[in-house]
Structures are given as structure tokens and as C-alpha cells.
Amino acid sequence: MNKIILLTDYRGHFYSSTTTNYASLNFNKVAKIFESSGFVVEIKSFSDIDFRNQNYSKIFVLYQSSEDPDLRYKSFIDDIIYGLHLQGAILIPGYEFFKAHHNKVFMEILRDLSANYEIKNIKTKYYGTLEDFINRKSDLKYPLVLKSSEGAGSRGVVKVNNFKQAFKKVKFLSKSISLKYSFKDFLKQYYFKNYVSYSNFRRKLIAQNFISNLNNDYKILVYPYQIFILKRENRKNDFRASGSGLFEFTDQLPEGILEYSYQIFKSFNVPYISLDVAFNGNAFYLIEFQFVSFGTLTLEKSPFHYEYQNEKWMKIDGKKNLEDVFAHSIIYYLKSNFK
């Protein structure tokens, strides 16, 4: 039996849609599409999962992530889906792709582990503390882009031109001081010989090579044989495009960007992917990428999209329905990987 469990959050939401003011997409419609393709669908919340009395081995589980403050609910989701993974459930997408959501450190680890060398012209160092950064300062070449591991829309993203600037920004981005914790740690220095204090700067972050001559980037959503693309201009007097609000749907694209994006999608073997891609006139750069709970405005608002037909990418006019594209992408993924 091809059973799919669809996991909703504590609000009864599943993913989000711009057509519902970023509430839930219509998961009942998604379920009906699954059922019409021969799947049995069960809708549960994360807190309904019962590991002691239920066995989820070999059952498909479609889940989401969360962008709540401090990612506290995301931590709960992590516990549940990792438990499902350990029991043998088939997560869609796999657990490693959930782990990369709002976690740029692990996202960059996935880049480093990838066999796709086309995405490795951005080079990343990752750090757990300010002290890690200081200890490896000789590895760096400026200018650099520093990024908090958490966050979206260019929050926590800064450019630095030298170590003095970098030290100041890393100190700010990694700050994690707790007065009660710090006071206890301070006292231990007097009671215990050779005691080394814990860091007060333990928010993880990454450092990347700065790419010059970028005036914009592209938000690209890729599904099986379909691509939706949005051009985003940089903010005024800034190198960042994400979150600028300066976007347009255009068919005037750099040659090769569609195939570049589709090859990235194929290399990760996922049902869908969100890419931030930049082009400096000579090369494409994969700035960031996400696999779960990414924004869908690019799909829902676009007046056209691209489909791969007769061995080439064709522009197709007209809007597409989020639930339809989402569900059929999952079905295609399952039939391709679990025959």
C-alpha cells in the first residue's frame, strides 16, 4: 500500500501560500491529488506521532519546517522527523534537507559534500564561536561576506573588508551572553585551577568569498521539468538582493541559467528546490538553496514559467496552481525513486 502521512503544525497549517495571506496551502486539495494517483493519505499533526504504539517504517512522510523566533518549534519538528527517520519512515525530502533549513552552516556542508562542482565557486568557512573565527583568521582573504547561520531575507548578512571589521561583526553576530550563566562561569575561574571559560559568542555563522559585479540575483523554484524564476535587484547602495522587494518577472535571462538550475535540482535528487542564483557576466553562483518551507511567491505570482520540452526549455504563458505543482512533483519524485 502506498501510504503518505502529511504532517501539519500546531495551527493546522501545511507549508504556506501567498493566496491565503501566507497561511496554509490547501492540503486537502493536495491529498485529493495524491489519492487520485493511488496513494492513501493520512493527515496528522507532529504531536500525533506515537512511536511506542505505531510503526512508521517504509511509510512516506511529507513534512514541513518552521521559521518561528529562535526556531524553538523547529527544534520540536526536528525531534519528530528524526525519530521517524530512525524508525525507517521515508521522509520527503530526506532528513538532511530539513536540517539545512534556516541553518546555513549545514547548507554549506551539503554544498561541500555535493559532487556538483558547478556550485563550488563560492567557498565557505563555518564557525561555532568567535574564538573559532579568531583561531582561523589566517585562512581568510578579504573582502568577505559574513552570514548568521539562521535567518532569511539578508538578515544577518554583512560585507567586511579587513580583519578589524570582521572581528567587530562576528562578535555582534555570534553574541550569546547570559548574565546568570556568565556569572557562574566567572566564579569558576577562581575556584578551579586552569579553568577555561565558556565563550559568550556561540551563535554559529559562516564566511564566504565576496563576488563582485553583482547587481541582482534570481530567485528560482525548480520542480520536475518546470522552472519559475524571479529577478531581484540589489538594494540601493548595497550588495544584497534578497529581501529588497525590488523584483520583476522577466524572460530576459542569462543564457544557461535554466539548465544550470535544473542540474543543481537533479544533483540533490529532491522533489523541489529553491535557489538564489547570481550571474556576474562570466559565471553563475549559487548563493543559497532550500528544500523545505521556502517562499512560493515566485510560483504563485509569475505570469509564465519554463518547461523542458523536446530537449529545450520553453516559455509557457499563464499562471500555475501551487497545490497542483506541489503534489505532482511529490508523485513524480516517489515514482522515480520508489518503484
In words, what does this structure look like?
The protein has three domains: 3-92, no CATH class; 113-121 and 211-325, D-amino Acid Aminotransferase, Chain A, domain 1, CATH 3.30.470; 124-209, ATP-grasp fold, A domain (Dna Ligase, domain 1), CATH 3.30.1490. Strands 9, 10, 11, 12, 13, 14 and 15 form a seven-stranded antiparallel sheet that branches. The chain is 31% helix and 24% strand. Helix 1 (27-36) crosses helix 10 (322-337). The chain is globular. The protein is an alpha+beta fold and 339 residues long. The two termini are 12 Å apart.
Q: Spell out the CATH superfamily of the largest domain.
A: ATP-grasp fold, B domain
Classify the helix fraction into a percent range: 25-40%
Query: For the report, how would you describe the main beta sheet?
Result: 7 strands, antiparallel
Number of strands: 15
Head-to-tail CA distance between termini: 12 Å
What sequence of helices (H) and strands (E) makes up the elements? EHEEHEHHEHEEHHEEEEHEEHEEH
Mean pLDDT: 90
**Could you tell me the radius of gyration in angstroms?**
22 Å
- Reading off the top of the CATH hierarchy, the class of the largest domain is best stated as Alpha Beta
What name does CATH use for the topology of the largest domain?
Answer: D-amino Acid Aminotransferase, Chain A, domain 1
Estimate the strand proportion.
15-25%
